[in-house]
Amino acid sequence: MGIGEAFAREYARRGNDLVLVARSEDRLLVLARELRSRYGISVQVCTEDLSDAASPERIYEHCRSNGIVIDILVNCAGLSRAGEFREMPLEKLEEIVAVNMLASARLARLFLPDMNAAGSGGIINVASLGGMQGVPGLALYSATKSFMITLSEALHMEVKNHGVNVLAVCPGFIDTGFLERTGHDASVIRLPVYSADKVVRAAIKGFEKNRIRVFPTLLDALLAFSQRFVSRKVAIMLSGYFAGIVKR
Ligand SMILES: NC(=O)c1ccc[n+]([C@@H]2O[C@H](COP(=O)([O-])OP(=O)(O)OC[C@H]3O[C@@H](n4cnc5c(N)ncnc54)[C@H](OP(=O)(O)O)[C@@H]3O)[C@@H](O)[C@H]2O)c1
Question: Consecutive sets of 10 residues in the chain, 248 residues long: mean pLDDT of each?
Fold first, then answer.
């Protein structure tokens, strides 16, 4: 669902075959059926829980044993929990790190060698504007998205001479239901909330131009760029103010 579904729809519209991954098999099957019949493409469904450390290898093995070559890996699955870090349940902390960081890194590690050998394709990592600095109220989430950004930056340089692209897309707040699922009251956010399609269009364009990082809107780009002119402390305080979670 959300940004991942928007990626699936856009790549399907462009005629790409797809492998869809998430936990909700019913939703995946409905989407796969719709995209197959509308665009005449092949759509495989791989129902996996990415918080399970073994799931990336099962996904890779599923593709390998079915003769599927992955040209573009979109690392999009992610979760968060709004609120002060000291109150976060430990199991939620483990889950956020497992999905947002470990699963993404494992998938990249598994699929990158084949892309490197083919001399084409690449990875789109869905990070966040929140990964540009710590965000009070979203401390662990923003740390996992910083990880996504720095991992993407280093991988981009490691593979760029092999015809492989690696991009981090850094959206602001997106209207997908993600905020409600994380317990983040959208009415306290002091930034515009925009659509998943904007993220997807900007990410694919940036990927095709082999950019390292992409900020989907002008405001996202301005917020990221403006960090150069303020102290780190001010950048962190402002990010907390925009998120609106921690009141003080
Ligand atoms: N929405 C925003 O404001 C925003 C802003 C910046 C960045 N992002 C990032 O964009 C990405 C997508 O966010 P979204 O807004 O599209 O969120 P979403 O609507 O909540 O969708 C999250 C997707 O990840 C899948 N997923 C979650 N946990 C999973 C697990 N353990 N195993 C397998 N799949 C899992 C979900 O499917 P199942 O539940 O079926 O597994 C769902 O398809 C995330 O990485 C998020 O951090 C979002």
Answer: 98 98 98 98 98 98 97 98 97 98 98 98 98 98 98 98 98 97 95 98 98 98 97 98 90
Owner of token pair 């060698």? 113
User: For 2-243, CATH number?
Assistant: 3.40.50.720
- Give the residue whose CA is nearest to atom 24 of ligand 1: 77
Instruction: Check if 141 is active-site.
Output: yes
Q: What's the pTM value of the predicted model, to 2 decimals?
A: 0.98
Q: In the prediction, which pLDDT does 248 show? A: 64
CB distance 129 to 242 below 8 Å: no
Domain boundaries, the chain: 2-243
CA distance 143 to 162: 29
* CA–CA distance, 214 with 221 (Å, rounded to integer): 8
Alpha carbon distance 125, 122 (integer Å): 10
Going by C-beta distance under 8 Å and a sequence separation of 6 or more, which residues neighbour residue 4?
20, 22, 74, 76, 77
Q: Output the CA 155–ligand 1 centroid distance in Å.
A: 22
> Does ligand 1 have an atom closer than 6 angstroms to the CB of 149?
no
Q: Work out which ligand 1 atom sits closest to the CA atom of 23.
A: 41
176 lines ligand 1 (CB under 6 A): yes
Q: Is the CB of 122 under 6 A from ligand 1?
A: no
Any atom of ligand 1 within 6 Å of the Cβ of 243: no
